[in-house]
Amino acid sequence: MQAALDRLNVNLAKAQPSATYRMMDRVAAKRAAGASIISLSAGEPDFDTPAHIREAAVSAIRDGHTRYTQAAGLRALREAIAEKFKRENGLNVSWQDTIVCSGGKQVIYNALAATLNEGDEVIVPAPYWVSYPEMVQLCGATPVVVPCGADVGFKLTPAALSDAITSRTRWLILNSPSNPTGAVYSRAELAALAEVLLAHPHVLVLSDDIYEHLTFDGEPFHTIAQVEPRLKDRTLTMNGVSKAYAMTGWRIGFGTGPTWLLDAMEKLQGQQTSGAASISQHAALAALKGPQDFIRESKTVFQARRDLMVDSLNSAPGLSCTVPGGAFYAFASCEGLLGKTTPAGTVLRTDEDVALALLDEANVAVVHGSAFGLGPYIRIAYALDNNSLREACEAIRQFCLSLN
Ligand code: GLU
After folding, report:
1. pLDDT tens digits, residue range 114-165?
2. Whose CA is nearest to atom 1 of ligand 1?
3. Relative to the CA of 42, which ligand 1 atom is closest?
4. How far apart are CA 43 and CA 329, in angstroms?
5. What is the rounded distance in angstroms from the CA atom of residue 403 to the CA atom of residue 144?
6. N or C: which end of the chain has fewer CB within 10 A?
7. What is the 218 CA–ligand 1 centroid distance (Å)?
8. What letter does residue 322 receive in the DSSP assignment?
9. What residues are in contact with ligand 1 under a 6 Å CB criterion?
10. What structural domains does the chain harbor?
């Protein structure tokens, strides 16, 4: 084992596998063995990609759009992305100020890989999406995790940001609405963070806006480069079609930021993937240019599911959950379950024990909170139909009731 590890890149050897993917793999293995599992593990909409987008992809194949595109993406798609940033985010950018990558993940990874050196620090507010600190680590830099607990609404405060910044800080990563908590930063909260950042011109900002369209209760969405235009020339605003248009498998993410950064990301991508898949780019173009009703409709559906989930989780003894303002995740404290024993005899010592026991004994898959940098919690992705959600909630409640 050690000999094999010695052959690996040192940064990869140190990194953890993606906890979300590990749970998705466990679910697949259980299902292959015949188990009936309700999976609340993967953060992806359960809807089909809208028909007009799928049709656009079929037409792209028929019309022979099957060759390489420019490494930074098709010009028509980049124009649509620039238009989207103008229309929805008030960011006045041209198509040259955009890049298309193979999923939002690659936008983030490219930006980090293009800029980080050993000794650099990246501020990652916790709870965080599992891949941020690992990507930083893969690039040889150091994630500086800033705990943001329930007492601060799982959000970074200006004071905590200020304390975390050093001369080695390269990036701050912001994600609103948040995966895994659903927390949404208000305009005032972003403005207060921007105030701190203005005093530290060496810090770049990565704004992961992938859940932009999922803010509930009429709350508007804000992104930091819009709230504080003086940060625009050092902010990478990143988004994608995965969550907005139920297109996770198509792997199209995009971003806008300073020219020097986009050029570096394009150079990297040109040596790495040659750019995103041409068919997927044509589908993304149809998504951005076509009717937008799907976005409104899915937001209404997700808000109703959120209400169902939060009520049910809070009725399970030992679990407690605040109301998330966006995304499609509930982040429930499972502190009240720790120390208890399951019917199969497992003592629940950590939130990971809780997640594994839920899978093995209740046939429900969730991801443990510690993987997102804060325990003892479980993350529940409620991107399933109401009947499956009700069934899952009942199984979770019965599991909680069955503990000794
Ligand atoms: N972003 C989703 C999640 O957190 C997809 C899986 C992943 O890439 O981590 O579940």
Report:
1. 999 999 999 999 999 999 999 999 999 999 999 999 999 999 999 999 999 9
2. 43
3. 10
4. 8
5. 37
6. N
7. 25
8. -
9. 18, 20, 42-44, 129-131, 179
10. 2-48+294-402 (3.90.1150.10), 51-289 (3.40.640.10)
List phi, psi (to 5°) of 265: -65, -40
Q: Which amino acid is at 72?
A: A
**Mean predicted lDDT score pLDDT of the chain:** 96
Q: Return phi, psi of residue 107, to 5°.
A: -60, -50
Q: In the block, which residue shows the tokens 């930091």?
A: 224
**234, 198 in Cβ contact below 8 A?**
no
Q: Whose CA is nearest to atom 7 of ligand 1?
A: 20
- Which residue, by CA, sits nearest to atom 2 of ligand 1? 43
- First and final C-alpha spacing in the chain: 39
pLDDT digits (tens, 9 = 90+) for 306-357: 999 999 999 999 999 999 999 999 999 999 999 999 999 999 999 999 999 9
| Token pair of 126 as six digits | 């916790």
Q: Is 201 exposed, middle or buried (0-12, 13-18, 19+ CB in 10 A)?
A: exposed
Q: Which of 106, 109, 179 to mutate to test the pocket of ligand 1 (most atoms within 8 A of CB)?
A: 179
Q: What are phi and psi of 204, to 5 degrees?
A: -90, 155
Per-residue pLDDT tens digits for 192-203: 999 999 999 999
Pocket test for ligand 1, best of 107, 130, 214 (most atoms within 8 A of CB): 130
For residue 155, the CA-to-ligand 1 centroid distance in Å is 20
CA distance 96 to 94: 5
Query: Pocket of ligand 1, candidates 18, 129, 378: which has the most ligand atoms within 8 Å of its Cβ, to mutate?
Result: 129
pTM of the model: 0.96
The pair of three-digit structure tokens given for residue 284, joined into one six-digit string: 């993304």
Q: Which of 190, 266, 200 is nearest to 229 (CA)?
A: 190
Measured in Å, residue 107 CA sits from the centre of ligand 1 at 14
Write down the number of H helices and E strands in the chain. Answer: 15, 13
